[in-house]
Amino acid sequence: MIQVHSFVFNPFQENTYILFDETREAIIIDPGCYEKDEQKDLTAFIESKDLKVKSLINTHCHVDHVLGNSFVKDHYKVELGIHPIELNLLRAVKSYAFNYGFAGYHGTEPEYYLNEGDKVKFGNSKLEVLFVPGHAPGHIALYSKEQAFCIAGDVLFNRSIGRTDLPGGNFETLIHSIQTKLFVLPDNTVIFPGHGPSTTIGEEKRYNPYCATIK
Question: One digit per residue, pLDDT tens: the chain, 215 residues?
């Protein structure tokens, strides 16, 4: 069974996720750890659980979600996976990170790409890749049908949605992604977002002021 552990890192209060199962194999999703103490918190948890990190994934490549890429890749000798459309966004971070106070950011390159329908496997577990653009052009989410949860990045939040005023963002595209890729999931599916607390599909279908479908 997959266990989901989250950290809140960097001034953007970004949610970084570690997923692992009974084999102790793990994946890291959207490492926002930039400061040394944040990196220490991440590694201390992994050591405390005796986890073996198998891969690193970005749901999308905005600065707050990729700050820890270089550290994780170097420390755990793992490869980075993103959607191919996100490559330019990932490369662009190095040109503007200092504007947000991240002068020490080190750029990274992906080793593999993830597309709609691909499976992310670790230990005895697997996640399905969903393509959910709108907040970012190559945004993906990671869905566990067996355990009814989704690592959704910045697509759907508790009573909110991802912003669409950044380069590559589009409001209509985002709403379409939510309604055709997320709201078709069972109502009990837990959404683990890129910022803020978790929620469920059923809750957001009823109460989200931006995209509720149940009146």
Answer: 999 999 999 999 999 999 999 999 999 999 999 999 999 999 999 999 999 999 999 999 999 999 999 999 999 999 999 999 999 999 999 999 999 999 999 999 999 999 999 999 999 999 999 999 999 999 999 999 999 999 999 999 999 999 999 989 999 999 999 999 999 999 999 999 999 999 999 999 999 999 998 76
Kind plus residue range of the DSSP H or E element containing 152:
strand 149-153
| 49-69: b (≥16 Cβ within 10 Å) or e | eebebbbbbbbbbbbbbbbbb
Give the H/E segment covering residue 19. Answer: strand 14-20
**Apex CA 48: angle with CA 45 and CA 50, to 5°?**
105
Choices 3.60.15.10, 3.20.20.240, 3.40.50.620, 3.10.129.10: CATH for 3-207: 3.60.15.10
> How many Cα atoms are found within 13 Å in the side-chain-facing hemisphere of 200?
9
